[in-house]
């Protein structure tokens, strides 16, 4: 028995409904869905189609594309309609899809055939549905990005290869050079000491102020210059060009200019306190002369760069200066411009200079300078010179000049004040030269030590010149060698020269060292000038024997008398006793040159006869006598030679030795004054200098008195 509520019949044939797919074309008919119990589902053949009707329902079902949902069979135009296919569920034969008829409207069931108008739906052109816009193309972007990254990393890799393999060394050098700072390690300049080690000149700690123009803006130049003007003692007009930005001759940027050298530490601290842009203060050294004018004409002074300019500072600059060192180290830039710990650093140590130990005795030098200055001022002298020699060693114990200057302030001195009189002033010696003429006569045998020379009168003519004696003697008077020296007889000296001969006189002038510098150590020493007989004129036979027409320095004439005092042996005058290395090693100076000029007999004869100048009645040198000591010496009156010409005034001189019986020291004094003979101008200065020297070195007084001399016969 069939189930209740159901008709027992075969299931009806499915109703074919044409469905338009997404492409708008006709699709195969899809059977209407049936219920599970054989009833028809919604939209099946059991529900009549409402052909030809329209209304609210159809309007509601109208889609924007101009078709109703009934026509499309689905509410989503992009979604395919479900299809009921014959055969296996979910599958569809290809032949069925190909044979699907065009979409037709189906009349409701039960409608007569004639009443069913057959109408084919109009065909619309097939068209592709619009795709939604694509917001990006990630594949293309990925490809482009990959290419760009590859190019970027390839460029970096190529640059790294270039830097590491080809330009690495050069670039490293450039970079290091830009980071390197150079600092000068100053070599201390050697000191100048007297014979006992007392400092005459040495270097002291100081500061130098510099500018880096590359770090000074144009607006700061004037303010910097104004702030430093008073501290450095330099006008703004000098400071501004130094601080202004500029390039050097080689095209490099100027990054260093000295503003002041050797300033006091306090001044350096004051400059640092200003904190001016581009201005720095660095350790320096300054030459200091504790004695100021003591031996200033000998010592000389240095420039701001520490190099010697005059005197011994200049003559021995290579010995004293040493060699500066350098320190090269790596620094940062900008605010980090300080030394980099552990960075590149290289030091070249400074080599300090050697010190000089002179033969000068500070105390004797001081006394001689004081006496010379006082005496020269009293006679209104233009210049004065004094030399103290050790007879046996040739050491210069004192060498003074008038006028002097303060070596600690050389800028306040004149060129005349800085001259060293004993070596740089040239004079005609006058009567002090007569001892050479008499030594020539004695040494050649032209006269005997006890001989008496007949005088032709109180005057004698040579060439066109008449030479007279200041102490007239009658014609036929016989004068002894002590008499010639005591009276400073021109006629007697010329007569001895005639006997000895011109050539012999010239030879002994040269042997005594005239015409050549002594090479004692001072720079600019004059050699003087002596003429060979071939260049003598008629009057030269009278002038040269008495010291006219002969150019000498005071030091040369002092060496002549030291030769006589030393038994006829010439000892080269010298100022340098030893050189002291930085480690304290003492190297004595080269031995002084020695040569025999006179025999012991000739030297002793002259030494004894020279005492007559100081002791004999009517002699010219009484003012040179030193109480308690026997003195031998000679007065002289000559002329100063300047630029090859004689200048107005007279050069008064006295050169002597003491104790006369065993000479220890020779002192020569020269002075150029408006007038006055050596006995009046130079002899008193000699006396005071010799007295101090003998007492200072504790030389015992002379035993006995000077001999009595016969001056004329």
Characterise the protein shown here:
29% of the residues lie in helices and 19% in strands. The chain has 23 helices and 25 strands. The radius of gyration is 62 Å and the shape is elongated.
Give the gist of this structure:
With 713 residues, the chain is of the alpha+beta class. Mean pLDDT is 83; it is low at 1-11, 15-54 and 84-100.
Lay out the secondary structure.
Layout: E1 17-20, E2 26-30, H1 56-60, H2 69-72, H3 94-98, H4 138-166, H5 168-179, E3 180-185, E4 192-193, E5 199-211, H6 218-232, H7 236-243, E6 257-263, H8 265-274, E7 279-288, H9 296-299, H10 311-315, H11 317-321, E8 325-330, E9 345-348, E10 355-358, H12 362-378, E11 383-390, E12 396-402, H13 421-424, E13 427-428, H14 434-444, E14 452-454, E15 459-462, E16 465-468, E17 478-480, H15 481-487, H16 490-500, H17 502-511, H18 540-543, H19 554-565, E18 569-571, E19 576-580, E20 586-588, E21 594-596, H20 600-609, H21 612-615, E22 632-642, E23 645-646, E24 650-658, E25 665-673, H22 678-681, H23 683-696
Parallel strand pairs: 4-10
Antiparallel strand pairs: 1-2, 3-8, 4-5, 5-6, 5-7, 8-9, 10-19, 11-12, 11-25, 13-22, 14-17, 15-16, 18-21, 19-20, 22-23, 22-24, 24-25
Helix pairs in contact: 6-7, 6-8, 12-23, 14-16, 14-17
């Amino acid at each position: 028995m069939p189930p209740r509520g159901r008709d027992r019949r075969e299931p009806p044939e499915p109703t074919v409904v044409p469905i338009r797919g997404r492409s708008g074309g006709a699709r195969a008919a899809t059977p209407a869905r049936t219920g599970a119990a054989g009833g028809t589902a919604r939209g099946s053949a059991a529900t009549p189609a409402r052909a030809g009707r329209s209304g609210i329902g159809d309007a509601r079902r109208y889609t924007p594309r101009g078709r109703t949902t009934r026509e499309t069979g689905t509410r989503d135009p992009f979604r395919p309609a479900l299809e009921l296919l014959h055969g296996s569920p979910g599958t569809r034969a290809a032949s069925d899809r190909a044979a699907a008829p065009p979409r037709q409207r189906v009349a409701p069931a039960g409608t007569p055939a004639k009443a069913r108008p057959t109408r084919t739906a109009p065909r619309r052109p097939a068209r592709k549905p619009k795709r939604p816009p694509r917001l990006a193309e990630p594949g293309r972007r990925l490809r482009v990005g990959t290419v760009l990254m590859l190019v970027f990393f390839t460029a970096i890799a190529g640059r790294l290869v270039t830097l590491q393999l080809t330009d690495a060394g050069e670039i490293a050098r450039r970079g290091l050079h830009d980071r390197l700072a150079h600092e000068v390690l100053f070599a201390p300049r050697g000191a100048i000491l007297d014979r006992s080690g007392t400092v005459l000149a040495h270097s002291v700690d100081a500061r130098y102020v510099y500018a880096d123009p590359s770090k000074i803006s144009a607006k700061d130049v004037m303010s910097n210059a104004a702030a430093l003007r008073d501290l450095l003692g330099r006008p703004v007009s000098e400071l501004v060009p130094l601080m202004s930005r500029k390039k050097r001759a080689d095209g490099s940027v100027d990054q260093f200019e000295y503003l002041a050298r050797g300033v006091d530490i306090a001044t350096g601290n004051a400059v640092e306190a200003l904190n001016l842009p581009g201005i720095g203060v660095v350790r320096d050294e300054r030459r200091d002369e504790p004695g100021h004018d003591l031996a200033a004409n000998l010592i000389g002074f240095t420039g701001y760069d520490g190099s010697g300019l005059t005197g011994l500072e200049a003559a021995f600059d290579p010995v004293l200066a040493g060699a500066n060192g350098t320190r090269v180290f790596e620094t940062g830039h900008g605010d980090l411009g300080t030394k980099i710990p552990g960075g590149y650093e290289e030091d070249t140590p400074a080599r300090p200079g050697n010190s000089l130990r002179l033969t000068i005795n500070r105390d004797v030098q001081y006394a001689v300078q004081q006496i010379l200055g006082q005496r020269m001022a009293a006679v209104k002298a233009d210049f004065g010179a004094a030399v103290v020699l050790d007879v046996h060693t040739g050491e210069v114990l004192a060498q003074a000049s008038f006028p002097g200057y303060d070596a600690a302030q050389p800028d306040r001195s004149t060129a005349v004040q800085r001259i060293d009189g004993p070596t740089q002033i040239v004079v005609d010696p006058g009567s002090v030269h007569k001892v050479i003429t008499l030594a020539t006569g004695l040494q050649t045998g032209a006269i005997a030590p006890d001989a008496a020379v007949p005088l032709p009168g109180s005057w004698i003519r040579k060439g066109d010149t008449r030479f007279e004696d200041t102490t007239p003697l009658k014609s036929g008077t016989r004068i002894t060698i002590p008499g010639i020296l005591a009276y400073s007889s021109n006629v007697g000296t010329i007569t001895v020269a005639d006997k000895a001969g011109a050539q012999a006189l010239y030879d002994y002038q040269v042997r005594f060292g005239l015409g050549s510098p002594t090479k004692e150590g001072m720079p600019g020493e004059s050699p003087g000038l002596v003429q060979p007989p071939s260049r003598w004129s008629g009057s030269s036979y009278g002038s040269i024997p008495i010291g006219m027409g002969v150019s000498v320095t005071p030091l040369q004439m002092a060496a002549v008398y030291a030769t006589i005092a030393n038994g006829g042996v010439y000892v080269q005058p010298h100022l340098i006793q030893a050189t002291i290395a930085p480690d304290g090693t003492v190297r004595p100076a080269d031995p002084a040159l020695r040569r025999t000029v006179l025999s012991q007999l000739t030297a002793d004869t002259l030494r004894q006869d020279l005492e007559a100048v100081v002791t004999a009645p009517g002699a010219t040198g009484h003012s040179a006598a030193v109480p308690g000591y026997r003195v031998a010496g000679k007065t002289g009156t000559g002329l100063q030679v300047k630029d090859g010409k004689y200048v107005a005034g007279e050069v008064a001189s006295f050169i002597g030795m003491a104790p006369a019986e065993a000479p220890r020291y020779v002192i020569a004094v020269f002075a150029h004054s408006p007038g006055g003979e050596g006995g009046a101008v130079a002899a008193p200065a000699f006396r005071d200098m010799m007295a101090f020297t003998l007492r200072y070195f504790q030389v015992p007084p002379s035993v006995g008195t000077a001999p009595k001399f016969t001056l004329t016969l």
